[in-house]
Design goal:
By secondary structure, the protein is of the alpha+beta class. The strands form 2 sheets. Strands 1, 2, 3 and 8 form a 4-stranded antiparallel β-sheet that branches. The protein has a 4-stranded antiparallel β-sheet with strand order 5-4-7-6, sandwiched between helices. Strand 2 (15-24) and strand 3 (27-30) form a beta hairpin. The longest helix is centred in the last third of the chain and has 30 residues, at 261-290. The chain has helices at 31-41, 48-67, 74-87, 92-101, 106-128, 135-144, 170-188, 193-200, 222-228, 261-290; strands at 4-9, 15-24, 27-30, 154-163, 211-216, 236-242, 245-255, 294-296. Among the domains are: 69-129, Orthogonal Bundle (Triger factor/SurA peptide-binding fold); 151-255, Chitinase A, domain 3. The protein is 51% helix and 19% strand.
């Protein structure tokens, strides 16, 4: 039979009974405690079992803090409340009004804040203390996971450009297209592509061998990007009509760059530190649980 205790008496003398859902080293957690926790979460249907496990963990940590003499004093609590009010530019009346909107009294808030402060202290002592990530660990992770830090694929293209007149007639368009086809055939027969650019191209970068430089695929003119999808470096495509004329292109290179170590080392260090913290925290909690008497009656 489940242990229970009287929560309140009604005017008629009947007794409302609150069920005990867990016992942690002799301390009880009731269904009403769990329901208050659910209300604080402000979610539609929190998982009661997970919520209760979290409450058990907090009780274990609070007990560890008490054993270590890490309790938050009344003065520390009062100073913390005062600091919170100052940071939010509120006086005591405004602060209590704000708490009331959240369904809390000042005393309830202080109970929660004291617990948060205590849990923070105990976490710093038993989890974060002595925890560090050195650069060798960061570098090793970077080298092992370089693909994670790959940048978007880039292509480098050269082109011969044949300009269309404004408001070109179908006959003019066909004539320009024929010129582009002739250039493509000459390139396919082995004529030097850069010399063909210098001889034929009407683009502004003709004197640079028609080199468009490295471009991320999503930033390339769509028609050219599509034409390069099936090409290998050194292969040709065209004529491609876009951007006011026809292009004959040669794909020069495809590359996928990796973000430099210096750019991502802080991000990696933070991630590794959080992983270590989580693992250390879980190990510590398991130790607390194994040294305790816990009954989960939910």
């Amino acid at each position: 039979m489940l242990f229970s205790y009287s929560l309140q008496s009604t005017a008629s003398g009947s007794v409302v009974v609150d069920r005990v859902v867990a016992v942690v080293n002799g301390e009880i957690i009731t269904m009403s405690d769990l329901q208050r926790e659910e209300a604080l979460k402000k979610t539609d249907k929190p998982d009661e079992r997970l919520l209760l496990e979290d409450m058990i963990d907090r009780k274990l940590q609070m007990a560890a803090a008490k054993r270590a003499g890490m309790d938050v004093t009344d003065k520390e609590l009062a100073d913390a409340v005062e600091d919170i009010m100052k940071r939010n530019s509120m006086d005591s009346k405004q602060f209590e009004a704000a708490l009331a909107k959240e369904g809390l009294t000042l005393e309830q808030y202080k109970i929660e804040l004291r617990e948060q402060m205590t849990l923070s202290r105990v976490f710093n002592k038993y989890v974060r203390s002595g925890l560090a990530v050195d650069e060798a660990e960061v570098r090793a992770y970077y080298e092992k996971n370089k693909k994670t830090y790959s940048m978007p694929e880039e292509i480098r293209v050269r082109h011969i450009f044949f300009k269309l007149p404004e408001d070109a007639t179908p006959a003019q368009t066909e004539a320009v297209k024929e010129k582009a086809l002739e250039a493509l055939e000459r390139a396919k027969k082995g004529q030097d592509f850069i010399r063909l650019v210098e001889e034929l191209s009407e683009s502004e970068n003709a004197d640079q061998g028609g080199d468009l430089g490295f471009m991320q695929r999503d930033q390339v003119i769509p028609e050219i990007e599509e034409a390069t999808r099936t090409l290998k470096p050194g292969e040709l495509a065209g004529p491609i009509q876009c951007a006011g004329g026809f292009h004959v292109i040669r794909l020069e290179e495809i590359r996928t760059q990796v973000k430099p170590f210096e750019k991502v080392k802080d991000e990696i260090a933070k991630m590794l530190y959080e992983q270590k913290s989580e693992n250390t925290y879980r190990t510590w909690l398991q130790t607390l649980r194994s040294d305790s008497l816990i009954e989960n009656r939910l």
